[in-house]
């Protein structure tokens, strides 16, 4: 994982050591929410792109991600990226909100 936020997670990966006998044409990215057992395809990238930004995540929800290389033969074995991550603002990051108060005196 590279970066996480309350509604997205950015991730990177390395290409597989072998291509199974055919050039890699791209990557398939899937995610799984919390304790669910089913994976959902959320995107694809080209063979040159080794990163992906998973968006539209729900703040406070834990997600697992996995990536598989694809070539002319098909989609390879998935590799899970790190451990599950919670979509939230990482410790140490915060937002500064500006508030403007207007006071009206009636005489």
Report the structural category: mainly beta
Q: What is the radius of gyration?
A: 20 Å
CATH superfamily: Immunoglobulins
Multimerization status: single chain
Contiguous low-pLDDT stretches (5 residues minimum) are 92-107
Total individual domains:
1
Largest sheet: 5 strands, antiparallel
CATH architecture: Sandwich
Classify the helix fraction into a percent range.
under 10%
Please give the count of helices.
0
Name of the top-level CATH class: Mainly Beta
Q: What is the count of β-strands?
A: 8
Instruction: Determine the mean pLDDT.
Output: 82
The coarse silhouette is elongated
Write up this protein:
The structure is a single chain. With 107 residues, this protein is an all-beta fold. The protein has one domain (3-86): Immunoglobulins (Immunoglobulin-like), CATH 2.60.40. It is 0% helix and 46% strand. The protein is built from no helices and 8 strands. The chain has strands at 3-4, 8-12, 24-33, 40-46, 51-55, 62-71, 74-75, 79-86. The strands form 2 sheets. Strands 3, 4, 6, 7 and 8 form a 5-stranded antiparallel β-sheet that branches. A 3-stranded antiparallel β-sheet has the order 1-2-5, with no helix packed on it. A hairpin with a 2-residue loop joins strand 6 (62-71) and strand 7 (74-75). It starts with a strand and ends in a 21-residue tail after the last strand.
